[in-house]
Amino acid sequence: MKLLLDTCTFLWLNSGLSRVSPLARGLCADRDNDLYLSVVSAWEIALKQVAGRLPLPQPAAQYLPSRREANGIASLDLSEEAVLQLPKLPPRTPASRAIPSACFGNGSGPSGNPRKTLCCKLSDEHYQNLYQ
Predict the structure, then answer these.
(1) 8 A C-beta contact, residue 37 and residue 65
(2) Smaller CB count within 10 Å for the chain: N or C?
């Protein structure tokens, strides 16, 4: 299964906080699953760190790549095609809408077909396919 982590899930998994449910933690630990982090999450983390609202042990430019690599999480680019899919998603914050829209990419992401990629908000007690 291909899983797109939301920003909070990525941060919580790397901080050791128990805010990620056992189910979500198990999905992330399962080596049969492919994990992705959108560049939108990187943007969100970098902005929050610069604003002083997100303390990290390193600058975001070092922290994100090192934590992604350590956990086998691939970076997922955001294409113009994906951005243009934003109106199809439920209204939320811009980052919360842009992160899952990456699943609609032009083949450069986990899948050109959103039905083949499970986009999850893993910080919930359950996960959900946002495109059913």
Answers:
(1) no
(2) C
Choose among 95, 85, 91: nearest CA to 117. 85
Q: Which residues, other chains included, contact 117 with Cβ-Cβ below 8 Å and sequence gap of 6+?
A: 2, 4, 103, 109, 110, 111
Which range of 22-31, 45-54, 90-99 scores highest in mean pLDDT? It is 45-54
Out of 45-49, 77-81, 91-95, pick the least confident: 91-95
Domains of the chain (ranges; CATH) run 2-119 (3.40.50.1010)
Strands of the sheet containing 118-119, edge to edge, are 73-76, 34-38, 2-5, 118-119
Q: Which residues lie below 8 Å from residue 83, measured CB to CB, with a gap of 6+?
A: 98, 101
Of the pLDDT bands very low, low, confident and very high (cuts 50, 70, 90), residue 78 is confident
Q: Which of 112, 89, 84, 119 is nearest to 6 (CA)?
A: 119
* 86 vs 10, residue with greater confidence: 10
Over the chain, what is the mean pLDDT?
75
Give the number of residues written for the chain. Answer: 132
